[in-house]
Amino acid sequence: MSTPPPGKLALPELAAMKRRGDRIVMVTAYDAPGARFAEDAGIDIVLVGDTAAMVVLGHEGTTVPVTVDEMLFLTRTVSRHSNRPLVVGDLPFGSYHVSDEDAVRNAIRFVKEAGADVVKLEGAGPSLSRVRAIVSAGIGVMGHVGLTPQSETILGGFKTQGRTASKARQLLADALALEAAGCFAVVLEAVPEPVAARITEALTVPTIGIGAGAACDGQVLVYHDLLGLTEGRLPRFVKRYANLAEEIRGALKTYAGEVRSGAYPAEEHTYPMPEEELGVFLADGVEHAHRDG
Ligand code: KIV
């Protein structure tokens, strides 16, 4: 992999953060303002998640429909506005499921065409050889186990994973296998806290939790969820740090009211013109404009 530009969080720094006990902060972003706000807030990792399918593109309750080209478009925008945070391009459903070659080809597109620093994919099992192939091509891979939304139908919905001893054991084995395959970090989604704690202890690479409790080495939340832009029922692990949906609706209502009442635009929102030019212009009459035009 090429040397990161100065200022960019270096990949090995994440494992060093785990060793020091410094928590890693990750958030999703899908556009330039989101990337800039994340950078200003000192976020370590920005994930251009395939949750874009739901929170940006409006697909109801599924990440499956988002395409590689749509993800590349969003990732390119975020990369352009991320200096320090590591930008993770999320490989969407279908982009790494057919073969290792396909996975490598698509991962390269995220790095070359969209400026992603690394990529993320879901699952273990068949995903392990994909991880090995992408890492062999010189691209860092973040793993993702537990609730893996791309296989939500097989999992029987958006449900907590690893709640029996055998399933928890399987999750631990999957996370260890992802580390052995070369992942630099593993997302644990919707997993009981003690299971996430056991996995975090067993791995030398960091775990990033979402609905996996406080023992993980880092946390990730979806931008729209934490800022209160997502409405309706949210998963239990989401904490809302703002209520932007209400703020935005209020601002748009006020704008609409002021346009209709004539309160907007006021004089301070208009451009002045020299008095003498205005006098000439107003004296011209419409025929002048017809003739000159
Ligand atoms: O796509 C996404 O936003 C994710 C996070 C929820 C981890 O995978």
How would you describe what is shown here?
44% of the residues lie in helices and 12% in strands. With 293 residues, it is α/β, with parallel strands linked by helices. It is elongated and about 85 Å long. The mean pLDDT is 95. Bound molecules: 3-methyl-2-oxobutanoic acid. 3-methyl-2-oxobutanoic acid binds at residues 28, 47, 49-51, 90, 144, 187, 210, 220, 222.
Pick out its properties.
293 residues; 13 helices; alpha/beta; 44% helix; binds 3-methyl-2-oxobutanoic acid; 12% strand; single chain
Topology:
Elements: H1 11-20, E1 24-28, H2 32-40, E2 45-48, H3 52-55, H4 68-80, E3 86-90, H5 100-112, E4 118-120, H6 127-136, E5 141-146, H7 152-155, H8 165-181, E6 185-189, H9 193-202, E7 207-210, E8 218-221, H10 223-226, H11 244-261, H12 275-284, H13 286-292
Parallel strand pairs: 1-2, 1-8, 2-3, 3-4, 4-5, 5-6, 6-7, 7-8
Helix pairs in contact: 2-4, 5-6, 8-9
